[in-house]
Specification:
With 122 residues, the protein is mainly α. The protein contains four helices and no strands. The longest helix has 28 residues, at 3-30. It starts with a helix and ends with a helix. 16% of the residues are buried.
Length: 122
């Protein structure tokens, strides 16, 4: 898969996964009265599985395998940790939480793409 075509596909899947996360979380909270923390946890799992399946087939044109799924989870987990670290660092430095969000949105997708391109699907 060429970088020129995989990047927009990866971005599209990311937007779709975000929408899925929001829809699942809102549905669980509003329709089933679940705790928001649990609802977001379940929504993350659903969105991550969607993201793995579609990115594997469409963005990176690979076959689903247990090995690539473990690698995908590893990159996702590291991105999650980096998201927390960036957010906390901005807050510790006295910056606005909005700056933390901006940095996360600016940095994490690109780093996640690189992680998947060079680790998950190598």
């Amino acid at each position: 898969m060429k970088i020129a075509s995989s990047i927009p596909r990866f971005a599209t899947v990311g937007v779709a996964a975000t929408i899925i996360h929001v829809l699942v979380a809102v549905a669980l909270v509003e329709l089933l009265n679940w705790h928001p923390g649990l609802a977001n946890g379940i929504a993350f799992i659903v969105a991550n599985l969607f993201s793995y399946a579609v990115n594997t087939h469409w963005s990176f044109e690979r076959k689903i395998s247990l090995k690539s799924w473990y690698r995908f989870l590893t990159v996702s987990f590291l991105a999650w940790l980096l998201t927390i670290a960036v957010s906390w660092s901005v807050e510790a430095a006295g910056g606005s939480y909005l700056l933390g969000i901006l940095l996360v949105v600016a940095l994490i997708p690109g780093l996640t793409y690189l992680g998947h391109r060079y680790f998950t699907y190598r």
